[in-house]
Amino acid sequence: MASTLSREQLALRKLWWIGPVTIVLAAIINLVIRGIAVAFLGVPETFSYFQPASIIGSTIIFLLLALLTFVIVIRTARNPIRFYRILALICLLISLLTPILALTGLMPTPGMNLSIFWTMIAMHIVSAAITIGLFTTLVRA
């Protein structure tokens, strides 16, 4: 069972290619989600957080943090896959606070609307699914 894999059953060296593949895939998918939102949901092309450079940059930064966290979890947790999945889901829930706070006005975000909110939620969830899925399945020895 995947959740009971020990540290010895995980190939940490695979992260040298899994990490970059995951980051590139998540960035591409986020850009596709942005494109769909702009084309079909009325999301303004000019929304600052949805500029391609912003999407790519934030995806790289946050997925590098996810990768670093995964390495630490593999090295320290008794059941690293299970622990990482739980931790990543908690981090996903916390990350959803940003769009929620922006939509409610508690975090000033000029131009924020419901279409942008749901686009951000989709980007967060899809990025998490890609990251959790690839990290925890492809790292097996």
The 3D shape can be described as elongated
> What is the percentage of strand-forming residues?
under 5%
Contiguous runs where pLDDT drops below 50 for at least 5 residues? none
Helical amount? over 70%
Please state the CA-atom Rg, rounded to the nearest Å: 16 Å
Order of helices and strands: HHHHH
Number of helices: 5
Keywords: Membrane, Transmembrane, Transmembrane helix
Transmembrane segments: 15-41, 53-74, 86-104, 116-139
Pfam families: DUF6069
Question: Main attributes?
Answer:
mainly alpha, elongated, 141 residues
Explained architecture:
- InterPro entries: DUF6069 (IPR045713).
- The protein has one domain.
- The protein has 141 residues and is mainly α.
Quick summary:
With 141 residues, the protein is mainly α. It contains five helices and no strands. The protein is elongated, with a radius of gyration of 16 Å.
